Amino acid sequence: MEWSWPESVLSNGERVKEELMQGRELAGQLCRVFDDHKSTLVSGFGGGGGGSAEDLVDKILGSFANTLLILNGKESDGEIVSGDQIQGISSGGGSADSSSWDANHTAAVIKSEDFYEESCKTTSTFKDRRGSYKRRKTSHSWTRDTHALTDDGHGWRKYGQKRILNSKHSRNYYRCTHKFEQSCKATKYVQQIQDHPPMFRTTYHGNHTCRDLDCTSPRESSNFIRFGDTKQNHPFFSFFTSVKKEELVFKDELIIKKEIPPTSDDRVMTSHNNYSWLCDYLVSPDLTTFESFGPSNGVSSTLDEFDHEDVISRLMMGSFDLDELLQYI
DNA sequence: ACGATTTGACCTGG
DNA sequence: CCAGGTCAAATCGT
């Protein structure tokens, strides 16, 4: 199918290139920052990190935001642009499915959904398909170790519990409260990995695409990246830096509330996919900007083979040839 | 009544 | 084959 980028995109190609080059440069700097914080990758972000990494990510986010806006031909000249606005822009272009971006990233989810759709179509076989799913192969997951079960600000609903081999404690599975209402694909599982002191490992999969305040951080008004906004408003950073005066603590299945000061050393983060977890934040599933040009408009022939995450990852790693990217424009 | 949790069944990837 | 991830009926809590 024939498809071409909007004229505004073509005329702004140079500016796109500039923005991306800046993003690449900043990403390179950020990578060096990460290297400096290898052992304590995440704790360095929050309280005692000095903020340099945050600043860099701010700038990178800004670059990408500007790029996306230019691509949309709706640049806003230095204006602070929130993710909400970006989504609004993108929704005008094509698919209104805010989860499509994420779907393109998470093969397992796609498979799962495909299967589910398939099940729905063949209603005769729909009944009793428990446990029928596609296990995620390449998990874009990250873990968070805490000494207590922390409230991460999202609405979770438990959907399963499992005893894990060679583990004293069973693993609890949670999905986003708004999984069905808003097709939010975020899941996590929590497992106690140590007794004294108690240590819990929470493994997150997928991003929240829901917009409910209960689901996004209740202390933040949006799950969307707020480009150009203060650091605190980045979900990425709020995850680490938001003040959690209240923490839920499990004790023999009894949940008690405990006042604790926000500590960063309590939060150890491990990515299972290098920087992809960061990319998940950098590119919110709701940022359907590329997608808005997408399949419904016939761009799929090009962009389907255009691994968004890979591109962003490579941009992050500074290994992407900008001309290579611009060929897609 | 309704939403959340529990729990055994079920299915898949490795 | 089996450990892990998910489903959904039963149960619980409000």
From TrEMBL:
It is found in: Nucleus. It comes from Prunus persica. Pfam families: WRKY (PF03106). It comes from the Eukaryota. The keyword Transcription regulation applies. Its main location: nucleus. GO terms for biological process: regulation of DNA-templated transcription. Gene3D superfamilies: WRKY domain. SUPFAM superfamilies: WRKY DNA-binding domain. This is WRKY domain-containing protein. GO terms for cellular component: nucleus. One of its GO terms (molecular function) is DNA-binding transcription factor activity. Residues 145-208 form the WRKY domain. Keywords: DNA-binding, Nucleus, Transcription, Transcription regulation.
